[in-house]
């Protein structure tokens, strides 16, 4: 939203969560099963908000909206954009896509970050633009000039969720290969996924958000990044953010990561626990090499336009021919 404003758009926010039931249990139920009459209020309020006749209504992961609502908005002449950071059609099969699968063919433009979804949508004849998981320049930026290893209290660091086999991978890295691992994330999720011994010894700081997330990256000599295979990810959002923070990135080797960073020059990759451990040992003792790789990773992220502004400017340019005669887009 702030990026669109930086790009000169007038933005009116609409937050569906403010129209969910106040009970956390009921709200979670609506998210998992977004059907009428539970989503009636959300749809009603969006149609009321759209009475200002915006040029564009921007839907971010639209799981609550019905075909009637999308069609009513399109009848006003507004362009409808679906920006979906998740994968509705992958093998993970999250339980929130009931309404989305009824409406996804109705949007004027889809913005998808995964190659698998881009292929699907184009095969289905849908208007689609592939965007990159991007960094936010006001949040993800380099540390102060004087920052060095003396300020880095985390040797090998993972900040995030224990999706899939990540907890087992990190436990093996720490126990079998004696790598000094520090993990941060949602406390309840990590307590459930990891052994008690690993949690007590290797977990720190809880969930890091905003400035604390960036500072956690800065404080790490090596930042690990994975992809969610059941979501068909080929690039990790975290990998782009780590590079933008001018921090050393050690990510799982994928075609996506190899396409956006030059291996061993702008980022370092691994394909197994053993290879990850070997590279941790090698780079922990080479701070100058880590600094140079981190610097080139940051330069690549900026030069190649991995930031929000560049990615959303591409989307607006795609829409521009359709809305420029009506004036500057009013984006919802």
Describe it for me?
- The chain is α/β, with parallel strands linked by helices and 332 residues long.
- It has 2 domains: 158 residues, Rossmann fold; 155 residues, Rossmann fold (3-Layer(aba) Sandwich), CATH 3.40.50.2000.
- Helices cover 42% and strands 13% of the residues.
- The chain contains 15 helices and 11 strands.
- The strands form 3 sheets. A 5-stranded parallel sheet has the order 7-6-8-9-10, with helices on both faces. Strands 2-3-4-5 form a 4-stranded parallel sheet, with helices on both faces. Strands 1-11 form a two-stranded parallel ribbon.
- The longest helix is centred in the C-terminal third of the chain and has 17 residues.
